[in-house]
């Protein structure tokens, strides 16, 4: 069976001419000035740029945590501006996953229950939720660590649990902000390989902001945010 190339797949998410300005004591600060982005199933897109260039603002806007001043943010052809606040919350919960530099695992829960928690909060039966969690932890190479508390896991293992948790609800898009920024180089490679493999298997579109240019070898595309706009990175 032939597989459709990523470039020919229909985008899950589109940002079209997105602008975002903040008011500061020194006046208006334009952060995004007509940013455009498309993310497709199974695609991993890197986002690079100097500190202060607006990467976090772009991620927050794509993640429906902030609203643009103008432009479109579409997920599965629905513009977030047309959503009610309740619909935005449901879309974040159902279609978006988030991974940050720090794992934010619940210390009182073991690995499998940390991953299963979002499903159970969403009303999924505990047995089914744990089966899904176990599958994800296995994909992350952590099948032997399911019953361990976060404090019994290494930093890399904790971050892989966090990635598994972000994928528990089968999101359409995963947004990652420096997901390996707190890890050593060897652990970073292992964690990123797990993320890459799982994104392909789950057909999730992944947007990763990173300062680690070595990780761009995993990316299908790398974009740089400069002067409020996204362009192909010269790497």
Automatic annotation (TrEMBL):
InterPro entries: AAA+_ATPase, ABC_transporter-like_ATP-bd, ABC_transporter-like_CS, ABC_transpr_LolD-like, MacB-like_ATP-bd, P-loop_NTPase. Residues 13-235 form the ABC transporter domain. It comes from Hirschia baltica (strain ATCC 49814 / DSM 5838 / IFAM 1418). GO terms for molecular function: ATP binding; ATP hydrolysis activity; transmembrane transporter activity. GO terms for cellular component: membrane protein complex; plasma membrane. The keyword Zinc-finger does not apply. Belongs to the ABC transporter superfamily. Macrolide exporter (TC 3.A.1.122) family. One of its GO terms (biological process) is protein localization to outer membrane. This is ABC transporter related. Keywords: ATP-binding, Cell inner membrane, Cell membrane, Membrane, Nucleotide-binding, Transport. It comes from the Bacteria.
């Amino acid at each position: 069976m032939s597989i459709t190339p990523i470039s020919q797949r229909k985008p899950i998410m589109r940002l079209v001419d997105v602008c975002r300005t903040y008011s500061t004591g020194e006046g208006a600060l334009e952060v995004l000035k007509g940013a455009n982005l498309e993310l497709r199933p199974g695609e991993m897109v890197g986002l690079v740029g100097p500190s202060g260039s607006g990467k976090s603002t772009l991620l927050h806007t794509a993640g429906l945590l902030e609203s643009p001043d103008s432009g479109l943010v579409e997920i599965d052809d629905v513009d977030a501006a047309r959503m009610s606040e309740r619909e935005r919350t449901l879309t974040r919960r159902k279609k978006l996953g988030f991974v940050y530099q720090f794992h934010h695992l619940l210390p009182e829960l073991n690995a499998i229950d940390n991953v299963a928690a979002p499903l159970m909060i969403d009303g999924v039966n505990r047995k089914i939720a744990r089966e899904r969690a176990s599958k994800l932890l296995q994909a992350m190479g952590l099948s032997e660590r399911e019953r361990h508390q976060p404090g019994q896991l290494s930093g890399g293992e904790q971050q892989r649990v966090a990635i598994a948790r972000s994928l528990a609800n089968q999101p359409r898009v995963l947004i990652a902000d420096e997901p390996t920024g707190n890890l050593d180089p060897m652990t970073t490679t292992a964690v990123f390989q797990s993320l890459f493999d799982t994104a392909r298997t789950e057909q999730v579109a992944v947007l990763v902001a990173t300062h680690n240019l070595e990780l761009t070898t995993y990316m299908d595309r790398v974009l740089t945010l400069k002067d409020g706009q996204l362009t192909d990175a010269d790497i």
